[in-house]
Specification:
Blueprint (H helix, E strand, L loop, with lengths): L3 E4 L6 E4 L5 E5 L2 H7 L4 E7 L3 E5 L2 E7 L5 E7 L5 E6 L5 E5 L13 E3 L15 E2 L6
Length: about 140
Amino acid sequence: MSGFTGGCFCGAVRYEVSGDPVMVRNCHCDDCRKVTGASFATNVFVKLEDLTLLQGELTTFDHVADSGNARAQEFCAKCGTSVFSLGARTPGMKAIRIGTIDDANGLTPMGNVYTARALSFTHVDDTLENSDEMPG
């Protein structure tokens, strides 16, 4: 899926991606559950140079992730939608929350991370690349 657009819940933040995603992964860590309010997060990783913020203001929350690495969460300053995240493990990339993409039907997760923390009712597809924790 080359090129797509997206934005936050209220429409104040809009972005465009000009290239293909580098990877798409579901994350079952505690941080992703809390920041999305869901049982897991599906993160679409794109190169920074392929991502353009078209409009809106983002608020950043810096923290240390479950992996022990520095991480920044970027939210819409108006409605609070979690839009992007950046991490030390993925330099030169941002993770986009799949729920903010206008049409994400062409995207398929390649795997799951932190499956050891997946909620008991969450189905984890065994045919994907899965890891109990963050892969080394």
